[in-house]
Design a protein that fits this description.
The chain has 26 helices and 16 strands. The strands form four sheets. It has an eight-stranded mixed beta sheet. The chain has a three-stranded antiparallel beta sheet with strand order 2-9-10. Helix content is 49%, strand content 10%. The longest helix is centred in the first third of the chain and has 26 residues, at 129-154.
């Protein structure tokens, strides 16, 4: 060791702040080690070693190039592959990614190269090797934590669409449990070591070396991006994207590569044969085939409630409780239709179900990499609100949260709602269940707005609730207990606090819904109420295994059941509605307009015909009229789906969309 380095170490006594910082980091990582240790001695030794090494690294002086360059080589050889492993192992065993080959291949190699790209990008902006390695590894620590919590709370992984949803996630993050598993803490300790180590590898370079490395960085990053995003099979490998189970895509390709595969697939192609003239011809042909229900001669007021997290877990299997938790909703049979609604989301991304029920569009025709509220709704667009507005309705949206969640303040304007009522202009006194405005309070606000409406015109109100938002911790009146799930008694299911809280929240919603319906049962004006769930919550695999035990279901059938929620449509007057049965969310707006006895624009008429052939169309799976489960890719080029794609393309991507097809009834009546 050179005399200068020895002198640097001797001078540490004059730098107490550096020593204190080193000691604090070491102690902090040792504390993490205590929580991360899961009984495996090897891991304990590694964590202790990484903790001590991190403290020592922080004490190191600036190292000469003859030491830093070998350290850089070692870092680039070892750390990227270890980051790849540590990002995945807390969420999967990686048995389907790494096949044990001596040389990296496929997803592993592309991910390691992506990590190197990240280091090079940071270098381009900072021109510092230490910043490139330290900040680059910090980025992957943040990415790992984001991936971990999305997996924990939603059951899948970070997608391109999530980047636009950060604000909405922040507004509800206080209700979740952010603890890390021992495996995740083990990963965190590794990352901290990589970050501290990376920031100490500072290589002195001349001007031309900086330029040469920068040029190589641009070529390397550009080459990686072109290989992954612009070649059909990168490295000659065919990478699978399982849209019916997006979480499984991570198990095949890893989280980082899966992100880019979905981003690659998010590009929108113009449907074959599309033109506005062709779409007009399809719309005209539809009109003669549609048989409408007998109208009542009146325009009922319509209240549509998308209830956050409202689902009946008995679609998964047997679930016995000490008391029925949805007695009132399940009792609505007179002047009502009920069934299951298939959605494309699980545990979150509420706005995607909202998009389907307000536009009649389908997530099955879009990449899972997009959230339409964030990516497509950038101009005025057809919606249920506009359809009803064209038939004389006043339209209002209501949500007991901030107006910026999911960009609803912008989206509802594009959808043509006259008014948006949110937490900032709420009229009735706040009532809370946990930290969220309760469904009872939410329903009182709807009643208030109904009473204050313009009584000269019919009224349409669309409402999104928030009471049953996950996670299901906190103080919930626990009147109902789990007796048995599947064949497993409740006392043998481990910690089921959140599950029981959720069941009790459903009962609280049911009681509030009964009072809500009772109010409208006594008003003179005709009213239709439609309530449905946006998605099921995510539960751990042990619960799903318990619920599915003994059922002869394929993996796809099991998965699809996680995307079923209830819907009920009820009227306070005598109706003769047909049974619509189970359907996907995109058909609900056309069904609701038909139930109201109103005229359907051409697009809604097409939806009703498509509903007869394919009552369920989701990215997770499709069901034909005979109940056969298939994939949207298998029916992508059929005439019915191709025409639907043409409708949706015009609706989403053409700013001057064909309003007469989507909203106006005059075209229907010609």
């Amino acid at each position: 060791m050179t005399e200068r380095i020895r002198e640097e170490f001797r001078s540490l006594r004059k730098k107490p702040a550096k020593i204190i910082c080193s000691a604090m980091v070491t102690i902090f990582m040792l504390v993490l080690t205590g929580f991360a240790w899961d009984g495996i001695t090897k891991r304990l030794v590694i964590c202790l070693g990484l903790s001590v090494l991190s403290g020592i690294i922080l004490l190191l002086p600036k190292l000469p190039n003859w030491i830093s360059i070998p350290m850089l080589a070692l870092y680039l050889y070892y750390v990227p592959s270890k980051i790849f492993l540590r990002m995945e192992l807390p969420m999967q065993d990686m048995s389907r990614i790494v096949d044990g080959a001596a040389v990296m291949d496929g997803a592993e190699l592309l991910t390691v190269l992506f990590i190197l790209c990240a280091y090079l990008l940071v270098f381009l902006f900072t021109q510092s090797s230490a910043a490139a390695l330290g900040a680059g590894s910090s980025f992957f620590l943040i990415l790992f934590l984001a991936e971990y919590y999305i997996w924990k709370f939603r059951g899948d992984f970070l997608m391109p669409s999530d980047l636009g949803a950060v604000g909405t996630a922040m507004s509800v993050m206080g209700s979740y449990n952010f603890s890390l598993s021992p495996e995740a803490l083990y990963t965190l300790i590794y990352f901290l070591f990589f970050i501290f180590w990376g920031f100490r590898i500072g290589i002195r370079m001349g001007k031309w070396v900086h330029i040469l490395v920068s040029v190589m960085a641009v070529l390397f990053v550009g080459g990686w991006y072109y290989t992954v995003m612009n070649t059909p099979n990168p490295l000659g490998k065919e990478f699978m994207v399982h849209y019916w189970n997006v979480g499984d895509t991570r198990n095949l390709n890893g989280a980082c590569l899966s992100y880019f595969l979905l981003l690659k697939d998010s590009k929108v192609d113009v449907p074959g044969g599309y033109s506005e003239k062709a779409l007009q011809a399809i719309a005209e042909a539809v009109v003669g085939d549609y048989e409408s229900l007998q109208g009542t001669g009146q325009k009922p007021n319509i209240i549509m409630v998308m209830n956050e997290g409202w689902s009946d877990l008995r679609v998964l299997g047997e679930l016995d409780t000490t008391e029925e938790y949805m007695p009132f909703a399940n009792s609505l049979t007179e002047n009502a239709v009920r069934g299951n609604l298939y959605v494309s989301i699980l545990g979150g991304l509420t706005a995607n179900t909202e998009f389907e029920v307000l536009t009649g569009g389908s997530l099955s025709l879009l990449s899972p990499a997009v959230i339409p509220y964030q990516n497509q709704v950038r101009h005025d667009m057809s919606s249920l609100a506009r359809v009803l507005e064209n038939q004389g309705y006043e339209t209002m949206a209501v949500h007991p949260n901030g107006d910026g969640a999911w960009g609803r303040n912008r989206v509802y304007t594009h959808f043509g709602f006259d008014t948006f009522i949110h937490q900032g202009n709420w009229a009735v006194p706040y009532e809370y269940m946990r930290e969220y405005i309760s469904d009872a309070c939410n329903f009182k606000e709807i009643i208030y707005r109904y009473e204050e409406r313009n009584k000269e015109v019919p009224f349409f109100l669309f409402n999104v609730t928030i009471q049953n938002h996950g996670s299901y911790q906190g103080d919930v009146p626990a009147d109902i207990d789990i007796v048995r799930a599947g064949n497993t008694p409740g006392e043998n299911m481990g910690d089921i606090t959140e599950l029981q809280n959720y069941i009790n929240l459903l009962k609280i919603t049911d009681d509030a819904f009964e009072e809500f319906v009772s109010y409208f049962a006594n008003v003179e004006e005709p009213v239709i109420i439609c309530m449905f769930g946006d998605h099921q919550p995510v539960w751990d695999e042990d619960f799903y295994n318990i619920m599915f035990e003994g059922q002869e279901l394929t993996d796809r059938e099991r998965n699809l059941r996680k995307y079923m929620v209830p819907y009920v449509i009820w009227a306070n007057y005598d109706v003769q509605w047909k049974e619509y049965g189970d359907m996907s969310a995109n058909f609900l707006p056309a069904v609701l307009v038909e139930c109201a006895g109103l005229q359907l624009p051409s697009f809604y008429q097409y939806l009703m015909g498509l509903h007869e052939e394919y009552p369920v169309l989701t990215k997770r799976g499709c069901l034909d009229r005979d109940g056969k489960l298939t994939d949207i890719a298998d029916i992508w080029d059929t005439d019915q789906i191709r025409r639907y794609r043409m409708f949706q393309y015009n609706q989403l991507y053409v700013e001057e969309y064909q309003r007469e097809i989507f909203e106006e009834v005059e075209a229907v009546l010609q």
